[in-house]
Amino acid sequence: MIDFGFDKLALIGAVALIVIGPEKLPKVARTVGHLFGKAQRYVADVKAEVNRSIELDELKKMKTQFEDAARDVQSSVEQNVREASQSFESDWREATAGLSSDGVSSTSSSYESIRPPPSYTPPRKNWRLKRGATPQWYKQRHGVRTKAQSGAARVARFRPPGLR
């Protein structure tokens, strides 16, 4: 980048003062500052965009690596499961080959004699019977309403005797 020392900046300022004049110099300096700031923001935005694209490329590479690793693990697990099921099936056939005397294994008849457990029935509740947790004497002593009253009946009950 261009190296500007203090002496070069002072020389540029003196030339600008002579060429532009003292009346227009502050306005020109303000405009140059705004343009310089816009240029810096533009350069910073370009740098940020380049960094984002580089990070995006790296993330895409990492994603493909993880997907490949996941596929490898999945295929190895599936292969191990297949091998285990094949060995289990062959061992099962070998073990059950000698058990059947008439073509039907003895274990199937013992399974038929076992009954399934009875289905669960929840206890019946008497929904007509209200079970209050608070005793009636407690409600009476503390003035808790136990009977529902309409609004008109409540007003008539508490109306002063002279207005009835």
From TrEMBL:
One cellular component (GO) term of this entry: TAT protein transport complex
Renumbered residue ranges of the record's region Disordered: 73-164
Segments of skewed composition (Low complexity): 100-113
Signal sequence annotation: none
Membrane topology label: Single-pass membrane protein
Keyword Cell cycle: no
MF term (GO), any: protein transmembrane transporter activity
Keywords annotated in UniProt: Cell inner membrane, Cell membrane, Membrane, Protein transport, Translocation, Transmembrane, Transmembrane helix, Transport
Cellular localization per UniProt: Cell membrane; Membrane
Biological process according to GO: protein transport by the Tat complex
Keyword match Membrane: yes
UniProt function note: Part of the twin-arginine translocation (Tat) system that transports large folded proteins containing a characteristic twin-arginine motif in their signal peptide across membranes. Together with TatC, TatB is part of a receptor directly interacting with Tat signal peptides. TatB may form an oligomeric binding site that transiently accommodates folded Tat precursor proteins before their translocation.
Listed NCBIfam families: tatB
UniProt cross-references to HAMAP family, sorted A to Z: TatB (MF_00237)
Record text on subunit structure and interactions: The Tat system comprises two distinct complexes: a TatABC complex, containing multiple copies of TatA, TatB and TatC subunits, and a separate TatA complex, containing only TatA subunits. Substrates initially bind to the TatABC complex, which probably triggers association of the separate TatA complex to form the active translocon.
Similarity section: Belongs to the TatB family.
PANTHER family: SEC-INDEPENDENT PROTEIN TRANSLOCASE PROTEIN TATA, CHLOROPLASTIC (PTHR33162)
Listed name of the protein: Sec-independent protein translocase protein TatB
Natural source organism: Rubrivivax albus
